[in-house]
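Section handout, structural biology tutorial.
Before the tutorial, make sure you can parse a SMILES string by hand: atoms, branches in parentheses, ring closures as digits. In the record below the ligand is zinc ion, and the chain has 174 residues. In the tutorial you will relate the predicted structure tokens back to the input. Do not try to memorize them.
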Amino acid sequence: MSDDSVPTLYCVNHPDRETALRCNRCEKPICYQCAVRTPVGYRCRECVRQQQAVYFNDRPADPVIAAGVAAALGVAFGVPIYLFLGIFGFFSLFIALFIGPTIGGLVAEVVRRSVGRRRGRYQKYIVAGSWIVGLVAAWGLLVVLGLRGPAALLRLDVLLAAALAVSAMTARLW
Ligand SMILES: [Zn+2]
Ligand SMILES: [Zn+2]
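Predicted structure of the complex:
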């Protein structure tokens, strides 16, 4: 005999499963498989989705704008990085340590402004990927123009600056 004061709950998605868990937002009974652990407790998938829809408020064109702006900035920063960073020899690595995060922060800020500060679920990946595409395009441009050799693509100072830039820009985007 179960205690009558505590009614047995069944998961709304799995009526055959008993559970003691409720979504802490809508109070629906949910089993452990249906529960999503969030920083504020267990929630059902519908509530999590709704919360994210409010949080991620980007418009359909935003990813395209973000990708275009990030790629253009990849070219804009890539050309001087490939042309001038290497001329400082060993010190290029130290310079890369400083300019990498600065460039990343700048790219993130310009992109955020260009999309009206709206948040997108994949925004940071789109921006980082497009920026790298722009960087590689800058290298391709310089190779075509005969200003740099193909091997410059993987120069250590460039890789260091690029890695720091990407980590800074993804940290500033959502
Ligand atoms: Zn819920
Ligand atoms: Zn369930």
